[in-house]
Amino acid sequence: MSLLTGPKGFQFAGVRCGLKNKRNDLGLLVSDVPARAAGVFTQNVVRAACVDHSRAVLSTGTLRALVVNSGNANCCTGEQGARDTARMAQLAVAALNLEDQPVAVASTGVIGQLLDMAKVERGVFSAASQLGADVRPFMDAILTTDLVEKHASATIGGAQILGVAKGSGMIAPNMATMLAFVVTDAAIGDYDLQGMWKRVMDRSFNRVTVDSDTSTNDMALLLANGLSGETPSEAEFERALLEVADSLSRQIARDGEGATKLLEIQVTGSANPRRIAESIANSPLVKTAMFGCDPNWGRILMAAGKAEIPFEMDGIVLTLKSNGEDHVLFEAGSPAPFDPKKVSSGLKSDHVIVDLYLGPGESETVYTCDFGYGYVRINAEYHT
Fold first, then answer.
1. pTM of the shown model
2. Which residues does the annotation mark as catalytic?
3. Domain ranges for the chain
4. Mean pLDDT of 315-336
5. Model pLDDT for residues 357-369, shown as the tens digit of each residue
6. Does residue 382 surpass a pLDDT of 70?
7. Who has greater pLDDT, 181 or 144?
8. Is 181 exposed, middle or buried (0-12, 13-18, 19+ CB in 10 A)?
9. Candidates 2.60.40.760, 3.10.20.340, 3.40.50.300, 3.60.40.10; correct CATH number of 262-380?
10. What does CATH list as the number for 10-254?
């Protein structure tokens, strides 16, 4: 597998310490110098200790490193779980000789189990000894039920942005995604980095849903160390950040547990097209119809209507788009003539756009996926 390198001044490592039965399960991401940082976190009231720890650390506006584990969410584990999170950060400080510089912690995996801290300690020191330019061992360390690694990059002059993410199930982000880490060597001046990051989140990760469930461990962090010496304009930088985050969002939706295709729900018109798009994207009946390649347009309109946002039936145009073809299924208050076999064949594509026009107005897009047999199998067997 080819080497994947990040921006200047960032090092990565991933090792297997035994929290999972296979694959890497502990990773380190380190900046050579203190990096300006921003972060968003789950709004779920039930949240992991790492969320509170990392939010507090980020109040300084800088980060030097991140330690992350998979296989155990360290959530709902009481005071011991909070102590273990703090210990993870302390271990990273010691292993990296950081002298109490700020270190974030992220965890993902099964809820309600204490971490095996002896394994974590061995993993942190092992990872610290293997830091390098290759991002792939780190990417492997953050995965759980993901089938593929997720990464995206952009360049702005001499500066680079690299983002990596994990997420496959329990995905309906509310201010973040499962886990996402974006690093850049751009020199960002006096930008309001936190405000920019929140705007980018709202236009990317917060528009992804796999199963309508917001994780207890959601976290998305941005680190900028300035080592390229390149200072893009604020608008240029935000556009490039959005490009990376949007790509990662699509990858997360496409890799939904048991999914066979990416669904892009586009809604135009009404007082709240985003709410309608989310209602369609979260409908199990729509998602199973898409898995079965069934052009059952009634389910889509049902899901649009249950959002309780008024619109006129006479103004609706519902179109399914795939493989470069547009299939109008409903128009002007009545079913449109279409060839069911041809539309069903088009739905076998791994990228389908559901385009719902409700009248003139703003357009909103939400990313999701279909529901297949694999989703039930993965989640029925996840813990036991």
1. 0.92
2. 177
3. 10-254, 262-380
4. 96
5. 999 999 999 999 9
6. no
7. 181
8. buried
9. 3.10.20.340
10. 3.60.70.12
